[in-house]
Amino acid sequence: MFSILIVDDEEPVLDSYEFMIHGFTEYGKEERPFALAGKARSGYEALKLIHETEPDLVFMDINIPGIDGLSVLEDVHKKYPRMVCVLSTAYERFDLARRAIPLGVFAYLVKPVSKKTFFSTLEDALAQLRSLPPESPEYDDPKPRLFRRDIWVPMDETRWEQYRKALNLPSDRALVMLVEMERDQTLWAGRIAEELSYRHHCTYDVILNRGLFLVSEDCNPAVFRQKTLAMLEELLHALSWYCGIGGLCRGPELYRSCSEALAELAKKRRETGVWDRERRNIARLRQKIGLVPPEEIKALFAALWEPLFAGDFRAAKIRMVSLFTLLLEDIFGVWSVENRNAENLDNGEVLPFDPAEIMELEDLGAWKRWAELNFDKLLLKANLERSGNYPLPLVKALAFIRGHYPEGVQLGDAAQAAMVSAAHLSRLFTEHLKTGFSDYLTELRIGEAERLLKEPGLTVKEIAYAVGYQDPNYFSKTFKRIKGILPTELR
């Protein structure tokens, strides 16, 4: 039986981890492979308990009082090289990951941690502990010693030559590639290494839930990047993944290639996050235009174009052409009928502008003037069209609900805002939206919760309160009923 120490300054986390450790059994077996060695709430207490109990596995929160979690590991790492460490924190930060990798950290969990993720980590850690040779340090094996420690720091020539000989590395030059996948990291890392090995000498390991690949040859970095990214696109097309590729270096300086790969990986994650926010804002703009106060819509529109025009001006204009084309289609239905002329509608109405005009704008001032004029035209038309499609009481009720859904809004409240009876408003929901008031409110709340879950900053419990649920457990059940997964799994 292996012992576990939990280090965290939050009592609910300590209790949750302890509960899951006691409930963990191997598949098909009844006995428990782990026993709790203790719980620590600060860095000093963690150091004391590690020296007293010498645990086999440690779940270490980074942000704890006193000495932080990484500093604790730095202090005990050399004395207890066989100890398996799992880091946990509320936010994923690559600067912390860079410090953690040379310490032999086994995995990196972002809180809140689901039961499924916790059990999966325990299974992987159990396999790791059982694979260690009896009474022999983990780093007697040259590959984990290189991948988990020495590759991340400058090496001297003698040590590098020892690694070349031990791992049969054919070249004095090499590069590092990191690939992060949404699931089954060990499985997919093996498949990536297999594909790479058809053309290159490749050695790999899985570090902090990412595949780390060492390509040992004096290759052309540009050609390697082009062909490898194409291979990854084909192999991982069904997954969400990120890749960072470092430059070609001599062995003693491989830490530079590691840092470059890690930095590129972080950059791609940030860029993807920006694109996801833009996509959600576009969806919200198209959904809300004409149904909520103009000030809210204008603010949402500004949040879309301002970050775009801070970069490549031409690329931003192309994105805005696409956006305005979508809005024209939503509001006027221009291109939804075959062979309809975009200049003149069937009823003789002329479109207020052509989105292609955006490409002729020469600077940011010209864009602001064009956008202010033509977005107002769209907004006016949207208010007329959508108010005309729905009865005015329903439009008022929808605007009220969107402005008050985090509160305990009831059908009677919305009816009062629309100045109709609750029964009449209920019929309007059924006739025009094909749904009931409660279902509409639930969909709205869960949709906003989904958006918040994909952004850092709030816990699941805080998100539940933010969208109008006072019981986080009920919120989680409702979220799973509608989205098919728990909020923690989505995050």
**Main structural class:** alpha/beta
CATH topology of the largest domain: Rossmann fold
Distance between the termini: 32 Å
Number of domains: 3
What CATH architecture label of the largest domain applies? 3-Layer(aba) Sandwich
Radius of gyration, whole Å: 28 Å
Shape: globular
Which ranges are low-confidence, i.e. pLDDT below 50, for 5 or more consecutive residues?
A: 334-344
Mean pLDDT, all residues: 83
What does this entry look like structurally?
The chain is 55% helix and 11% strand. By secondary structure, it is an alpha/beta fold. It folds into three domains: 2-140, 3-Layer(aba) Sandwich (Rossmann fold); 151-272, Alpha-Beta Plaits (2-Layer Sandwich), CATH 3.30.70.120; 289-386, no CATH class. Helix 3 (69-76) links the parallel strand 3 (57-61) and strand 4 (84-89). Helix 10 (254-288) packs antiparallel against helix 11. The radius of gyration is 28 Å and the shape is globular. The model is unreliable at 334-344 (pLDDT under 50).
Secondary-structure map with pairings?
Elements: E1 2-7, H1 11-23, E2 34-40, H2 43-53, E3 57-61, H3 69-76, E4 84-89, H4 94-100, E5 107-110, H5 115-131, H6 142-148, H7 157-167, E6 173-181, H8 185-197, E7 202-207, E8 210-215, H9 221-235, E9 241-245, E10 249-250, H10 254-288, H11 294-308, H12 313-332, H13 364-389, H14 392-404, H15 411-418, H16 422-433, H17 437-453, H18 460-466, H19 472-483, H20 487-490
Parallel strand pairs: 1-2, 1-3, 3-4, 4-5
Antiparallel strand pairs: 6-8, 6-9, 6-10, 7-8
